[in-house]
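Write out a record, focusing on structure:
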Amino acid sequence: MACALQGWSKVIAALFVTAATYNQLHVGQGGLVGALLSAAGGGGAEQLAQGQLPAGQLPPGQRHLAAAPYYRLWGVAGENFTEQGPFMDFSFAGYRHNNEVPPSPPATRSLRDFRAGQAGRRRSDSEALLAMVGWANRQPLDAGWLVLSIPRGTFRLEAPLTITRPRTVLRGAGSARTKLYVPRSLMQLYGPTNETNNGFYVWTGAFISLEGTGIKRTHLAHVAAPAPRGSHKLRVDSAAAIRPGDMVTLELFANGGPQLQEELLNHKLQASKRFRDKSIRFSSRVWGVSGRVVTLERALPLDVAPEFGPVLTFRQPRLYDAGVEGLTLAFRWEAYGGHHLEHGWSGIEVSRASDCWVRDVAFVNADNGVLVDGADRVTLRGLQLSVTRSRAGGPEGKEGHWGVRVGRSADIRVTDFAIAQRTVHSVGADTLGQLSVIERGVMRQGNLELHRALAAQCLFTDIHLGNASGGAYAGGGFYSGGPPASGPNTGAWTVFWNIRSNSGVLPLPQHNKGRPGACTFGPDLTFVGVNFDAVQLARYGLCQDWYYQPGEISPPNLFWSQLQLRRHLLAKLKVEGERGAWTVTQPLHITIVDDPPAPSAAPSQQQDQQQQQQQQQQRAPGAPQAQLLGGGLEATATA
């Protein structure tokens, strides 16, 4: 995107013109949306934290932030942003880098179509579900999209469902209308698992899986010269196999040494002796090719050095464009077995896949909600976790393990979520979980987990943690676990932006073997719109390489502000790629239900002004006017 950055002045001017349009979220009332909107002051978050609000019955509300100062390293609309600074452009985390919306093709087959068994016998709920998914997996890809519809009602699911075919969607009638009741755990069905050392279903296994069977990997070029973090250009040995518009993956390898880990830590903390056989990856569209120089749409997230053996590849998992949506997975109540003693009451797993999604799905009495492993560019939207009654178990007194786990994955987006369940790890990154975004969520007693093992460069923004007290298993906040031998909790350049709690303050970050605020938690971290506990600050101080600005900060949601800025840039440019011409433009408004499809052409400045005037005319006389705060929820200020 380097060439696009030359037009900053025009882009910023356009952003100012359309400020009122950008900052509107046209939303309904009640449900998850109500909880999200009320999190900043409507009272709903406190009720949620007290366990008064089961999933699907969260209160309506309207969020109005007082005018807040802008963070100096971002500015009003990104005019101060530099890709070599303390945070990257996170707007690419999600399905197809948010250049496209997860589709909604029409239903193909219904569960009713699979009720008839052999010899006229009617199949049970579970048998029909298995038959329906099995039929879909056997269909050729040229059959196009297959949408498997589950009608309104409650159905028993007595064995896991696994989708392996691309362009396949499992769709209920909505999380409040379609329920899959699971009476037996994975441990009861299959006994101990071979995937973990102790046989428990700690972070693996689920009752619905989007599971790829392999990855197609084609070598394109060796990177022939070093490149600095923030650069868009790579010099390669040959660009013959690369053309503008291609989706490529930059792969970097540890090659038995500590250098790659040291780079992820910005050469400031000691690398783990583990993970010296690992690799990391970074995907981007190609912006241009000139001789042997390849220009990427995205800026490099770290320095690229020859000792990492950098290569550009085409990397395509065999599973892509698959989704699960519109249903509730309700597990039979059982007390939580305890940390690392999970029996396998787990909801959805997305593994060895790319460009997939889960949306409008609720989990009741789960050990784990959603587990993402070995995946790229996945959007998880509208998730809810709750319990029918407390299932606290183990010495920790928790009710589950992970709400959402991102492991060995990149560019995962978790958005619009509500977690009323007290889990050990609410939402965050585990081993090699990188370049991902957790945004617009509310929790009863939440923590933002960074679980060591090369978790790095994640963004947490516009989140309410509820009763987020600190300390081991006490509540949450920034408290994070993971074995100390796996290194710091996070690599450099992870960002926390507008993180709130019921008390208005949050404890200092702490790992399970260190004091609050220990610098070994991670280097070069950004805490903006975070109010640390004053007593802890006075006692422990703050790491010199942590960026800290307390108080409510604008924009309220860094991800949305970055995404809107990028959409404006892309609206002015056109790239020819393997999918043909593609253009992404700025939407006229943003909905919380789903990202709107892009118009066919970018609106002119005159059209933007007309849209703004129409919107202002719709406001009641004397109503407060919207401020330019980037993405997120509407921010208003009275005159």
Notes: Residues 166 and 319 are 5 Å apart (CA to CA).
